[in-house]
Design brief:
The complex is a heterodimer. Chain A is α/β, with parallel strands linked by helices. Helix content of chain A is about 45%, strand content about 20%. The C terminus of chain A is likely disordered.
Amino acid sequence: MSKKPVTQPALHKVIMVGSGGVGKSALTLQFMYDEFVEDYEPTKADSYRKKILLDGEEVQIDILDTAGQEDYAAIRDNYFRSGEGFLCIFSITEDESFQATQDFREQILRVKNDENIPFLLVGNKCDLEERRKVSYQEASDRAKQWGVTYVETSAKTREHVDKVFFDLMREIRARKMEENKTNNGRGKDKNKRKKLKCVIL
Amino acid sequence: MDFESPDVMKDFPGLYASDVHKAKSNDIEYGEDAEKVTKKDILIGKRKEKKDKKDKERGYAALEGESSAEESYEVSPSKSKKSKSFKFPTKSKEKREKSRDKEKEVTEKKKDKDKRVDKKIEKDKCKVEKKEKKVKSEDWCDIAEVLPIFGVNLKLAIEHGRCHDGIDLPVPVRACIDYVEDYGLTFENVYKISAPKSKVIHIKKLYNQREHVNLVDYDVPTATSLLKMFLRDLPEPVFTSELLIRFEEAGAILNVALREKHLKILVGNLPQHNRLLLSWIITHFYNVTLNEKYNKMNAQNLALCMSSTLQTSHRLLTALLCHCPALFPDTVLERYIYPLTSSSQLPDDPELMEQELQKQESLLTQIHSEMNVGFISKQREELLWEVQRIITQLKRKLKTANKDREQLFEKIDEQQNEEIVENTQITQPSPTASYEPETTPVQISENVEETKSVENVTASETIIVPETNVSDSPNLAVLHKQVIKEAEPEEVEFVESESREFKNALEILQIRNGFLSELRDSFIKQIEEDRAEIAVLKNQLTQRDWTPVYGDANCASLDEIMDLLQKENQILQIKKINLVRQIMEQQEACIDLKTKIDAYSKHNLFA
Ligand SMILES: Nc1nc2c(ncn2[C@@H]2O[C@H](COP(=O)(O)OP(=O)(O)O)[C@@H](O)[C@H]2O)c(=O)[nH]1
Ligand SMILES: [Mg+2]
């Protein structure tokens, strides 16, 4: 009905997932406002929008920062369903959070029903090298198994913070372009219409 | 709390299912309502034909999901019946086709994705397939059918068309009242002139489908007709089927004071939601009648227009309108302001921010629950993120405002302390006071209340102070009388010493006590007598053989007579209760008067 004007920049929807306390909010806030909060405040759900230049093209990014677990699984699914790309975060200082990424991956695949969904495995708190519990090798092995990229970040030092968001957006953009191509063929649409007509007749 | 476990599904496998279940129970409730309408249209054969057709049109993936869903419905016969009535209601052909199109699109997409799915995750898929199917069967539902606002009972209508400002009325009701209050009060023959039905039905549909409606785009007759339609569509009258007769009874009482009293009691007996809706409608109609000069609608006229809509007599409606100020003294028709959208400016005042936050959170909950029954679309998802974003912004803004607010509160506290000091100074009788005489009483009366609550000693002081000053200012004299009236309902001379005051009150209480115990004794005596009579009557009953009087009469007439007698009994019962209440009230009034008389005579003796 109310089609957006063509000039509207592309919008990419990113969802942060991972156990509580791994730094989802810290990464988001660092990316959005260049700030780092020391004290931990459990998130319910927060959403942010930012205009950025992605390889010279002005785009908008919507970031949804979730709790490690929503009160209801169904609510979480509503969010996951609307996400176009996922940053799956764990803390390299906490093995449990790394194990949990497996579950998050499964949940996302179940809701999106798409194994090629833009997705990055992110090991956060890499500034705390002395407290590392998850080795780089272990994490990148899992990423390889899933067919995704592994990146280590620090929300505190801002290391690789922009990188994870930008890399994910590129994946989303590529994915959308691919989808557009297949949709522009319009072959399927025509088939569909013919089928419908047949039924009516 | 801090470290949230990620695998909800493992820990609480029931959680997810229960949500789906919740959604279904909603459907069922609606199903019952829908059945009324669709029973006629949906013959079993017809239904089957439609179903077959539908299945053919679908891709195999959806068919698979659908069939499993059907199976699960078939488990209980009553359930399956209901689910069908909600699946194939009387929908326009065009709309049905549209939704089919949608479903097709989804299947098409899903097929596409299926191709890309690797064998690796085949296992994972199996694990979750069952749950997936459940969701699928409810995906892409028509919200207007599953959670309609019109035509369901009031509680559901409020739930489905929630106003997010905490006032539990359905959105269309608020919108219509707001609109008519703004533009319709001076509209000639408002509520008498109605809009074309097709137009009203169209708006009703928009509301049911959660489309944005702006009544300003329409006119007064449309708004009034829409409100009427909402009320008419309610399965039960606002007065509830239970209390309706009693309302009618009360409305027919000739004695004005008594009528008001009974209507008040009955209003108090209404369920909360019904009471609120009634209070708003009547208050709104009352406002309409206040503008009779312009709109030509007095209470009589309006009652005639609305009685059939509200399923009442026009006498009751007229009565409610007449007693409106007494029945609903606290009802304020607060305008409903929709939750902000991202294009609007967020408020700066922390209190407004807090309010807005509550609204947005209520809206968010609503969106989630609608999504959980399958009301999912691109726009809805956009809305979900947008509302979430506004909430985040509000929270951030509140946080930064918090520090300022704390400082502000500290300042206010200081100022308040200063004010109290100032006020106590004002009450000191000072002939050189510089304030204007008109404002004096107000200031002092406020002050009396304030200081009263703070400290008793100062309260008595402030009351006494103006007394010594009576001759100085007539305004103060008036105030003085008011203060005494409030403090002491009896017109007994105000006593200066506190102990005297207590003695006085004690005396009055003692007198009252005496009368009340007399009354109690007489009641006890009466109860004993009644009990004795019951025993006697019971005895008679057991001794006699019970033979029906109408043994020969035919059953039909007997039933009729029974019906009539029962109804008569009901009415008599109500009348009896009313009379008993009246007697009680009069007895209490008697005691009050007697107490006063006694107190007076004693004081006259002392004087
Ligand atoms: N040293 C360090 N601390 C971090 C980092 N990221 C987050 N934190 C801290 O970890 C705690 C939890 O972070 P938070 O972002 O709230 O976790 P969330 O529950 O995943 O959103 C906070 O006290 C943060 O200050 C990081 O990269 N390095
Ligand atoms: Mg957080």
